[in-house]
Amino acid sequence: MPKRDPRVDAYIAKSADFAKPILRQLREVVHEACPPAEETIKWGFPHFTYEGILCGMAAFKEHCALVLWKGSLIVGDGDRDAMGHLGKIRKLSDLPPKRVLASYIKQAMKLNEAGVKSPTRSKPKGKKSVVIPAELKRALAGNKAAAAKFDAFPPSHKREYSEWVAEAKRAETRQRRVDQAIEWIASGKSRNWKYE
Question: Is the pTM higher than 0.70?
Answer without folding.
Answer: no
